[in-house]
Amino acid sequence: MLNTDLADLKAYMADNPGAVIEDVARQRKVTPRAVLEALPDTMVRFGPGSEFAAAMNDVAQWGEVTLIVHTDDAIFEFTGSVPAGEVGRGYFNLMQPKGLHGHLRHERCAAIAFVERPFMGKSSAFIAFINVDGGIMFKVFVGRDETRALRVDQLQRFHALGERIASARAA
């Protein structure tokens, strides 16, 4: 990306931090990762994708969250507890027979972004698992309480996990 394009994207994201990441990426012909990287530094932190299993198993202890997979063709949302998993046969296997289960190609995770920004008039916080192509594999959003505010317990865990994983990048 040219420096002028990057500066323009950073300016756009500073003015529109709640923009839908995938829409901006498509409109600007950049990767979703580039859009996340263009957010103000106060809104996003990155850690290495090698922490995929640790992050997922931490999230498995949070309780009800919303996991979103956003493709060109659909937006899938799952609200519930993310199961713990383990690595085997080349996948991170979600260890649950019903509800959310499956096999994730964890080795394609190049980075983990911790994003805290306004969205649709409310605070939001999510973890974006970013693949080697700069796409977002999926996002896990901090849950909301009965007043639609971010759950304080999960937000604390989000911050602690972000600190731990972002620190792993420097190690």
Structure, explained:
- The chain has helices at residues 3-15, 21-28, 32-38, 52-59, 152-170; strands at residues 44-48, 64-70, 75-81, 85-88, 91-94, 102-104, 109-119, 122-131, 136-141.
- The protein is α+β, with helices and mostly antiparallel strands.
- A 6-stranded antiparallel β-sheet has the order 1-7-8-9-2-3, with helices on both faces. Strands 4-5-6 form a 3-stranded antiparallel β-sheet, with helices on one face.
- Strand 7 and strand 8 (122-131) form a beta hairpin.
- Helix 2 crosses helix 3 (32-38).
- The longest helix is centred in the C-terminal third of the chain and has 19 residues, at 152-170.
- The relative contact order is 0.18.
- The model has no long low-confidence stretch (mean pLDDT 94).
Net shape: globular
- Strand order, biggest sheet? 1-7-8-9-2-3
Mean pLDDT: 94
Helix content: 25-40%
Unreliably modeled segments: none
Radius of gyration: 16 Å
- How would a textbook summarize the main sheet? 6 strands, antiparallel
Beta-strand percent range: 25-35%
> Could you say which structural class the secondary elements and strand pairing correspond to?
alpha+beta
- Quickly count the helices: 5
Distance between the termini: 28 Å
